[in-house]
Q: What sequence folds into this?
């Protein structure tokens, strides 16, 4: 079939047909329920009356809601037929299945767009209810991972930007098997791989965490049929694992080993590992080297920054002013300055402030004049001042027996940057 704009696609034809059927049924319903009276017109060969203003009477938000719901329900029916065909015919071509799945999904996406284009802010409809997202989930077997994957693709994925806390809490109470739950997590991870939206954090806090914390599951925490901590983390958390705290992971899975899953941990989780009394990391240089190797191998300084910000924050919460093990402290400071050295040339004053007045505070007791050799000699005096302030702040918090290295470093810094020195009489107290 050709139009002025070119040939119609199969999806367009299906969608237009579906809309036509729904609109006709809506109109017939309106006609059938209309009685004769003032302002009505009676057709010549019929006893049925219709309002004199015809189609304008159907211009109500409830009609839009009902039509969208019916199209969505029709997609459910077609999806059921698709699943049935594949279930009964093991040789059903996978590429054909994917093609039909995409056609059905485009119908949902197109209907969703029409719904929002025609809807008004005053209608007050919940789009997740209009499209029957949770209702359609009840049409299949929650333990069937293929059904759950298809349901997500057709019904939940197009509506992910509209999920809220209440919907996700209801989703977490569904009786998924661990295999279907893991299939759902994989699908969500793929769908939101490049998303930075808040829905990712919500999905973790109001769905994944709640589901895995349930004690009434056949496999609480979904810890069975997985090979170690790495696979457990990947299959049950996917790309959402960065939002979990290390304590969450250990609470859900008492056998979880952060050391074994080190490469999978976020910078924040690695900071938690370092400060976890059970890990013994603050007394073990080998663990420190492993953690820092994982942080610096990508040469992404932002990972190191995130680690130290979390490390400093947790240290403050636990009233840790400085690390007491000198070997661990020396190793952390040396590895950090070595990783930062290539970046110092491009540092702004606020960057030096962030590191020397904040991030490095727990390890500043290991500073010595040689440590500052990595600081470029051409930094601005504002940057110099940011470093100097950090050293002075450390001197206020360190015990006398641990402050000698910082005192020597402060003296060396002033001698190196004489051009930035200000006579004491000009210093603001």
A:
């Amino acid at each position: 079939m050709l139009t002025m704009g070119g040939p119609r696609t199969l999806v367009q034809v299906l969608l237009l047909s579906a809309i036509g059927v729904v609109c006709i049924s809506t109109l017939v319903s309106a006609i059938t329920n209309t009685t004769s009276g003032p302002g009505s017109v009676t057709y010549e060969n019929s006893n049925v009356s219709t309002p004199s203003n015809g189609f304008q009477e159907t211009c109500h938000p409830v009609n839009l809601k009902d039509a969208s719901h019916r199209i969505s329900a029709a997609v459910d029916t077609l999806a059921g037929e698709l699943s049935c065909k594949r279930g009964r015919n093991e040789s059903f071509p996978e590429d054909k299945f994917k093609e039909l799945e995409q056609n059905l999904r485009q119908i949902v996406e197109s209907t969703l767009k029409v719904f929002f284009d025609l809807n008004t802010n005053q209608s007050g409809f919940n789009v997740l209810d209009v499209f029957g997202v949770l209702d359609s989930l009840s049409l299949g077997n929650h333990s069937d991972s293929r059904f759950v994957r298809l349901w997500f693709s057709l019904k939940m994925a197009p509506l992910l930007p509209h999920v809220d806390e209440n919907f996700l809490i209801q989703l977490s109470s569904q009786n998924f098997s661990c295999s279907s739950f893991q299939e759902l997590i994989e699908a969500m991870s793929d769908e939101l791989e490049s998303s930075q939206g808040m829905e990712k954090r919500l999905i973790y806090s109001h769905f994944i965490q709640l589901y895995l914390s349930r004690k009434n599951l056949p496999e609480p925490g979904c810890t069975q049929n997985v090979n170690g901590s790495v696979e457990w983390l990947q299959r049950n958390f996917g790309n959402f694992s960065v939002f979990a705290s290390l304590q969450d992971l250990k609470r859900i899975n008492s056998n979880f080993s952060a050391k074994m899953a080190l490469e999978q941990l976020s910078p924040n989780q690695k900071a938690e590992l370092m400060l976890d009394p059970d890990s013994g990391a603050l007394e073990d240089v080998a663990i420190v080297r492993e953690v820092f190797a994982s942080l610096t191998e990508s040469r992404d300084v932002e990972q190191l920054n995130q680690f130290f910000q979390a490390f400093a924050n947790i240290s403050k919460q636990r009233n840790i002013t400085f690390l007491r093990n000198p070997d661990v402290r020396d190793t952390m400071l040396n590895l950090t300055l070595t990783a930062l050295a290539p970046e110092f040339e491009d540092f702004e004053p606020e960057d030096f402030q962030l590191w020397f007045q904040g991030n490095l505070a727990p390890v500043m007791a290991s500073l010595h004049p040689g440590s500052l050799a990595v600081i470029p000699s051409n930094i601005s005096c504002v940057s110099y001042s940011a470093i100097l302030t950090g050293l002075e702040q450390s001197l206020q918090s360190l015990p006398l027996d641990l402050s000698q290295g910082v005192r020597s470093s402060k003296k060396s810094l002033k001698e190196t940057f004489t051009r930035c020195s200000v006579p004491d009489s000009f210093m603001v107290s």
Observations:
- The longest strand covers residues 40-42.
- Residues 1-8, 19-52, 424-429 have pLDDT under 50 and may be disordered.
- Strands lie at 2-3, 6-7, 40-42, 49-51.
- Residues 140-245 form one domain.
